[in-house]
UniProtKB/TrEMBL annotation:
Protein name: Glucose uptake protein
GO molecular function: carbohydrate transmembrane transporter activity
Major localization class: membrane
InterPro entries: EmrE-like, Sugar_transport
Keywords, ordered alphabetically: Membrane, Sugar transport, Transmembrane, Transmembrane helix, Transport
One Gene Ontology CC term in the entry: plasma membrane
Family: Belongs to the GRP transporter (TC 2.A.7.5) family.
Localisation: Cell membrane
């Protein structure tokens, strides 16, 4: 039971990032920079408490990984601006899960048994169905003035966001394996550098930037509890629950940001959420075995 409670923290912390940051406000570059400042503060506190062993390789890879992460998060913030949090986040999470799982299975041979392929392929199909329904638009809503030009911009933002996130995930999960408590500080430094690059180093510590640092603290707290969940409840529970943050994003976007949904769209969202839950649980089982 304790492990499940731990696993709920990254689910809510990471799933809330989109709508909390959008509630705070700011442009995507400001949101990214503010978030990375909070992550750097959190990582510095962790380093002071844990004092992990660190080396040049860990610093170099950590900084590169952090810059890739900032690319992913910046693209996600842009996509949220164009498509809304309740649409952009499920699309982003679903695409990352599908592509990340395929790369792990095909390139790195993570699926070694028949049951892995059966459960894995079933999970991927469910995830594709899930993010299709969660982002599906009611044609009647379009006819009364819904502007889909921004939707196309949102897909372009999600493309480079997914590229950044997938590269970051492959780097840390498949190529290099570091202690999460040791690499969090170098990674946070890389995140800040990446965010400043998007701002062309025209950095300004405006009020909205500092407020978005709260989101970075949420990200760090999610990381710590992800480790606790994996050690107490097992990887299947920790992974599955952490990936369900997209559900929190959908709910938060609708109820806290006032993103409107027609009755049809609400039914589609519920179908999408159900598919997400089952798909993520199946992937968690495959990952743990």
């Amino acid at each position: 039971m304790q492990g499940i409670l731990y696993a709920l923290v990254p689910m809510f912390a990471w799933g809330s990032i989109g709508f909390v940051s959008n509630k705070i406000g700011g442009k995507p570059n400001q949101q990214t920079f503010g978030m990375t400042l909070g992550a750097l503060l959190f990582a510095s506190i962790v380093w002071l408490v844990v004092r992990p062993e660190m080396n040049v390789l860990l610093w170099g890879v950590g900084i590169i990984g952090g810059m890739l992460w900032s690319m992913g998060q910046n693209g996600q913030f842009h996509a949220m601006q164009y498509m809304g949090v309740s649409v952009a986040n499920p699309l982003s999470s679903g695409t990352q899960l599908v592509l990340g799982s395929l790369i792990g299975a095909i390139v790195f041979g993570e699926w070694t048994k028949s049951i892995h392929f059966i459960l894995g392929i079933t999970a991927l199909v469910l995830l594709v169905i899930g993010f299709y329904f969660s982002s599906r638009q009611d044609s009647e809503k379009d006819q009364v003035g819904q502007n889909l030009t921004n939707f196309s911009k949102g897909f372009r933002a999600l493309f480079y966001s997914t590229l950044g996130y997938i590269s970051y995930t492959v780097l840390f999960n498949n190529i290099m394996h570091f202690d999460a408590l040791a690499v969090i500080l170098p990674m946070a430094v890389g995140m800040c550098l990446g965010a400043m690059m998007f701002m062309r180093f025209n950095v300004s510590l405006e009020k909205v930037v500092l407020k978005n640092a709260l989101v970075g603290m949420m990200w760090g707290i999610g990381n710590i509890f992800m480790l606790l969940a994996a050690s107490t409840a097992g990887l299947a529970i920790a992974f599955s629950f952490s990936q369900l943050g997209a559900i929190i994003s959908i709910i938060g976007g609708i109820f806290f940001l006032g993103e409107t949904k027609t009755k049809k769209e609400m039914r589609w969202v519920l179908i999408g959420i159900l598919c997400f839950v089952i798909g993520a649980i199946l992937l968690g089982i495959v990952k743990a075995n």
